[in-house]
Structures are given as C-alpha cells and as structure tokens.
C-alpha cells in the first residue's frame, strides 16, 4: 500500500506545470480568442523604454511620402473626398477578448496598431512638400484604418499617407466609408499584416468613470500616452440630426484627431474628435483666463454603425427548381 502511494506521488510531480494549471480543452467548446493574450505576452518582453526620435520620424515620413507622390503612386485627395460619401464599409472586426494586461503591457501592445495619418500639401512660400499629421488606428489586418472625417475632408491636400509604428509609409488607396456627422472615416492601405485593435461596440460596457488611455501624436509628439476617465456621455445636433458623443479627461491636442480611446483591456471605446476650451473672460477680441478644456470623442458604437459584416465569398446554391422572390 505504501509503495503504491509513493508511486502515485512520484507520477504527480513528473506532470508538466502547465498541465496542472490548465484544464484540458474540450473539442465541443469554442476556443477563446488569444489575440489580446499574445499581444500582452509580446509586450511584457519589451519593458525597456524606447526613446522616440520625433524629428527622425518626420524626416522619414516626408522623404518616403514625397517619393510616393512623385512616382504617382498616391490617390489624389479629391478622389478620396468623393469617396467619403460612402455610408458603410464591409469589415471583419477582431473579436474582443476579455483578457486584461497590466497598463504597461496594454499600452505597449496597443501602440503597434496606432498609425500616423498625414496629409501632404505645398504652401505658397516654397516648392517643397509638407506633411501635416493626425492619428488613426488599425481595425483589420488587411489594411483597414480609422481616423476622423475632417482629417480626410481637406481639399488643400494632394494626398493622404499613413505611417505604421514600424516605419512603413503607405498611401491611402481608398476611403471605404465616411460619416460627416460622427466625424469618422474608414480608410484602406495596401497591407496584409497589420495588427488590429478590437472594438467595444456597446457604450453600456464603458460607463462614466471607466478608466481610459489615449495614444496619439499631439503636435508631432509621436506615440504619446495619456490617461483619464470617461467623464460623460451627451447628445448634440448636426445637420443630419442628433448624434451621440463622449467626453473624457485624458489629454490630447492637435495631431491627435482620429486616435483610439482605449479601456483597460485595450479595446477601443471611442475615437478622439476635438477639444473645446472654456475661458472665464471671452469676447470677440480676445479670450483670457483659461479654465477648462473639454475633450470630445466619438463613441465606438457610432463606428460600429457604419461597419457591416462581410458577405460570404461562397454561398450555397438554391435547390433546382426553387426561385427567390423579392419583397
């Protein structure tokens, strides 16, 4: 009896530790999406801070963007503006995983999905190309990116160009959909291996007080992370009717338009839109004594409304003799 007990104990300690911690996966259970877990693991292995050289990034963007324009590999901004009239886009979104990283790991992983959205133009003072910068983020690996409507809707631009976190510079080839009232635009670039962010489609999942992080490029300070909370939801009016908006306390500034507002899980719960400053003294001539700056964002639920699921590439054929009649 004693020898059998000792043998059982010996066998127990020869099992892999992972098998002791994790129950076996049943084949009749759906597997959890491991995207967030993988990104957290990847991010945790890169804890050493990396210094960003803003001027070097600007030079790289300007040099590569200029080459694309001069080689006629960009789409004219005029055509992109026309495509903003498209109401919906067919995009396969990433399933949001409930897994949560620590804040450091979440920011590091989410940065891989944030891009610089740049409008190229020429001024009246010289013959060189200039690049204004805004923000955006990836929602599908095959080159689908979100930014603001007003970032694209600028007739003074020659073209729109995107730079990824790893330094790739890609022209925007198409606007898949736009919403003037919600200030949203969905863009497409030629890529197949981008890292998307999951979208939290329900505002109820992010009540007032929810902790948020914004990753953006304020005033050319690339990949700046700021933290705050959701401070309120409110409704305003546009030409198209009432629209839902969200206010947060995390800081951002010009250059942040189109950036993702992230919850603790790294899910997009909003998109940076604009700021509104409140002054104690304000008249037609001057504004004095700044008191407060409201940070207005687009709820992610508004983004979800202009995205539809892709139509399956192959559909079952109707049985012979059957007919389909429209209503």
Describe what is shown at a glance.
This protein has 327 residues and is of the alpha+beta class. The chain contains 8 helices and 14 strands. Helix content is 21%, strand content 34%.
Structure description:
This protein has helices at residues 2-12, 17-21, 35-44, 54-70, 77-83, 103-111, 149-152, 300-305, and strands at residues 89-90, 114-122, 129-140, 144-147, 159-163, 169-179, 184-189, 211-216, 224-238, 241-248, 260-262, 268-282, 287-299, 307-308. The protein has 327 residues and is α+β, with helices and mostly antiparallel strands. The protein has two domains: 52-189, Trypsin-like serine proteases (Thrombin, subunit H, Beta Barrel), CATH 2.40.10; 203-308, Thrombin, subunit H, CATH 2.40.10.10. The strands form three sheets. It has a six-stranded antiparallel barrel. The chain has a six-stranded antiparallel beta barrel with strand order 8-9-10-13-12-11. Strand 3 (129-140) and strand 4 (144-147) form a beta hairpin. Helix 3 packs across helix 6 (103-111). The radius of gyration is 24 Å and the shape is globular.
Largest sheet: 6 strands, antiparallel, barrel
CATH architecture of the largest domain: Beta Barrel
Distance between the termini: 77 Å
Strand-pairing-aware structural class: alpha+beta
Corresponding CATH superfamily of the largest domain: Trypsin-like serine proteases
Q: Give the topology string: H per helix, E per strand.
A: HHHHHEHEEEHEEEEEEEEEHE
Number of strands: 14
- Overall shape: it is globular
The percentage helix is 10-25%
Query: The CATH topology of the largest domain, please?
Result: Thrombin, subunit H
**Whole-number count of domains:** 2
In percent, how much strand structure appears in the residues?
Answer: 25-35%
CATH class of the largest domain: Mainly Beta
Identify low-pLDDT runs: 1-34, 315-327
Q: Helical stretch count?
A: 8
Radius of gyration: 24 Å
What number is the mean pLDDT? Answer: 84
